[in-house]
Amino acid sequence: MYNEPIFLKPVFKDRIWGGTKLRDEFGYEIPTETTGECWGISAHSHGPSEVGNGPLKGETLNSVWDKHRELFADQQGEDFPLLVKILDAKTDLSVQVHPNDSYAREVEGEAFGKTECWYVIDCEPGAELVYGHHAGSMLQFEEMVNENRWEELLRKVAIKPGDFVYVPNGTIHAIGAGTMILETQQSSDVTYRVYDYDRRDDEGNLRELHIEKSIEVAMIPHEDADFEPVLSGNEDLRIKKLVQESYFTVYHWNLAGNVSDVENPSYLLVSVLDGEGELNVEGGMTSTFRKGDHFIVPSTVKSFGMNGDARFIVSHPTI
Question: Which family does this protein fall into (predicted)?
Fold first, then answer.
């Protein structure tokens, strides 16, 4: 039986809006001074993670998913369902929207659409997100887009460190400048740009927009998602369930001591936001973790212990 966590090597993505905080704050070796994304737990073909420890060392996560489904509660489906990223938005991201599963499959040939959620790791004072819009109908939405009435159309929301934002598919959204988030999402790379501030790429060309597809998949009128965080645990491990919906369940864990018999409901995707500590599996080796680590606790580990001082975002598919 496989009885240890699966640590993964992150994949980095250069982005026009990226910066250096993934290096400065997490100590990653980033490839460029405009590195916008760390794909910490990924089996997507555009950037699969590589296992960094144990008997599966050197294999990609998508390969492990294909060959060792027993590590993932024998979950059905051709593709690993989730993707976990850390994003460094030095400047504003484009205003965008993502499709649902059926549209992504039929139009793009992707296995999944994209519902996602964000935990705000840090942000500058006064930072904002675009979350939703003010159009009351499809006709009004199209008119405001075609007339470039962006300030009137887009709904902006102030944020602070520790905030959590749930972004179902169809939600018009954008991460604002000076923000670092951890994103848990369906394993999809389909993004439709609605507006990009007339930015140009390295060759001086305006970046591609996807207005027609955006209008087809956007939620109009906008409705805020209804969810309520749930607290549990004790002083040694405080657990806040941030959201539970059809694709994933996401938690914030605050470890401040020593806990045993932490239950594993299926398989857990774990990203260490801050601190360090140890994870112990009965009959297995002790694994150390620190800020910036990403690992999976496989379903073959039914329970485990932890000690240390650390903060995590933890998720699992809702199955």
Answer: Belongs to the mannose-6-phosphate isomerase type 1 family.
**Which among 35, 36, 47 is positioned nearest to 10, based on CA atoms?**
47
Range of the domain at 253: 230-317
Cα–Cα distance for residue pair 302/293, rounded to 1 Å: 21
Q: How far is CA 23 from the centre of its chain?
A: 18
Q: How far apart are CA 73 and CA 317, in angstroms?
A: 11
Pair (90, 189) in one structural domain: yes
In this predicted structure, what is the pLDDT of residue 178?
98
User: Could you tell me the CATH number of the domain that includes residue 166?
Assistant: 2.60.120.10
Classify residue 174: in a domain, yes or no: yes
Residues 213 and 254 in one domain: no
If asked whether residues 35 and 159 sit together in one domain, one would say yes
**Per-residue pLDDT tens digits for 242-290:** 999 999 999 999 999 999 999 999 999 999 999 999 999 987 789 999 9
Instruction: Give kind and range of the element (H or E) at residue 72.
Output: none
d(CA 292, CA 274): 7
Instruction: Let me know whether 304 and 203 are in one domain.
Output: no
Looking at the structure of the chain, the number of domains it has is 2
- Asked whether residue 116 is marked as a ligand-binding residue, the answer is yes
Q: At 247, give phi and psi (nearest 5°).
A: -100, -35
**Is 23 a catalytic site residue?**
no
CA distance 260 to 232: 15
Closest to 289 (Cα-Cα) out of 317, 258, 312, 266: 312
Burial label for 33, CB within 10 Å (0-12, 13-18, 19+), is: exposed
**Which of 69, 193, 199, 207 is an active site residue?**
193
Q: Which residue positions in the chain have pLDDT lower than 50?
A: none
Asked, for residue 109, whether it belongs to a domain, the answer is yes
- Is 151 known as a binding-site position? no
Mean residue pLDDT of the chain comes to 96
The pair of three-digit structure tokens given for residue 171, joined into one six-digit string: 């939600």
pTM: 0.96
- 3 state SS of 212: helix
In a domain, 95, yes or no: yes
